[in-house]
Write a structure and sequence with these properties.
alpha/beta; Purple Acid Phosphatase, chain A, domain 2; 2 domains; six-stranded mixed β-sheet; 43% helix
């Protein structure tokens, strides 16, 4: 718990440093005294961190309201900070060209207005996109001796907590049931890190009633480990009909094998075992860290999440260089790898990039 608090303390500190640049950017256009504007902007990083640090002491509605406000502030601050870069370039060119008077009287005001309008536009588009989930369908043909064609729904990165709660888990259940899959796989980060808050609100109860004849299976992610009580979380999920796999193998359907790997934070050096040859084999983990190894060991399907496909543009430029596959679908020898953008979000529901999704994978015999 303390480590999670330190994380948000650090984010608040970074926010306090960034508001100086944002104040310099927007002070030319906002009709507020400059000292008052700076004071108001300095409060925003504190408001952002409060619901995560003080969630045990604040009323649930206050926590949720502050968390949602802080989440949108974080997105706004992120893009406002990025827009400082071209503004700084313009300022330097004016200084070099001896146009400081023109900068003060005209260019700074116009650029400030453009930056403010663009930031609000990006915030609106990202909020709309984050609230509109999609179902991505993938077809796989296999020559493995499966008893019949089947389908699975894969979802990851739900992030239940101060921002996304009971209503969100109920929405997820409805969306999963609309897919009518034989089995449901949940690829980790079921909570955002505050298990006590999730249990207090009863957010897991919204997952009761997921319809999957072959079962609902989950692995844990890094944010689940931040909750600091994985056995308690697994017990709560089991009451909702969700079985957590910690390095275990199950047979959900005749001719189908499912392996759920422990998260990297729990078992960083656990080897990748060879896949059974006479079954369609599914390798599920939270982070897409073992795609290549799973292909070398003969697995047929790899599903994971964690990356959110960057969530905030242009983050994916970096994310796609960290993993063999950061989002989407790709073949590695006989293995089909699927990395989801996730269903929830870190912070408020905000996406600029691939939409939040459920992945429906349909497997049929050759």
């Amino acid at each position: 718990m303390k480590q999670r608090h330190y994380f948000y303390f650090i984010l608040a500190l970074i926010g306090e440093l960034s508001i100086w640049g944002q104040w310099a950017l927007f002070r030319h256009i906002l009709p507020v005294r400059q000292d008052v504007l700076l004071g108001l902007m300095a409060l925003l990083p504190v408001v952002y961190a409060m619901p995560y640090i003080l969630s045990d002491r604040l009323p649930a509605r206050v926590t949720r309201g502050l968390a949602r406000f802080g989440g949108y502030w974080f997105a706004f601050s992120y893009y406002a900070t990025l827009l400082l870069v071209p503004g700084l370039v313009l300022w330097l060119l004016c200084q070099i060209g001896g146009l400081d008077d023109v900068w003060q009287s005209s260019i700074a005001v116009h650029y400030s207005a453009i930056a403010l309008g663009l930031t609000w536009l990006l915030l609106a588009v990202g909020a709309w996109r984050g609230h509109h989930h999609v179902v991505r369908t993938i077809d796989i043909v296999t020559d493995k001796p499966i008893a019949r064609d089947f389908s699975l729904a894969f979802v990851s990165d739900i992030h239940l907590g101060p921002v996304l709660g009971l209503d969100f888990s109920r929405q997820l259940r409805r969306d999963l049931n609309d897919v009518h899959a034989d089995m449901v796989l949940i690829g980790g980060d079921i909570i955002d890190g505050n298990l006590k808050y999730v249990l207090y609100e009863g957010s897991f109860s919204g997952l009761k009633g997921i319809q999957a004849p072959a079962g609902v299976y989950a692995v844990m992610g890094n944010h689940d480990t931040y909750g600091e009580d994985l056995p308690l979380e697994e017990m709560a999920l089991s009451r909702c009909g969700i079985r957590c796999l910690n390095g275990e193998t199950v047979h959900p359907l005749p001719g189908v094998v499912l392996f759920g790997r422990e998260d990297y934070y729990c078992a960083p050096s656990a080897p990748v075992e060879a896949a059974p040859e006479q079954a369609f084999s599914i390798f599920m983990e939270h982070e897409p860290l073992h795609i290549v190894q799973a292909a070398e060991k003969g697995w047929d399907l790899h599903v994971s999440g964690h990356t959110h496909a960057g969530q905030f543009w242009p983050n994916r430029w970096v994310i796609r260089r960290l993993f063999a596959l950061d989002y989407g679908l790709k073949s590695f020898q006989q293995l089909t790898a699927v990395v989801s953008s996730g269903y929830g979000a870190w912070g408020e529901l905000f996406r600029l990039g691939p939409a939040p999704e459920i992945v429906c994978i349909r497997v049929r015999r050759a």
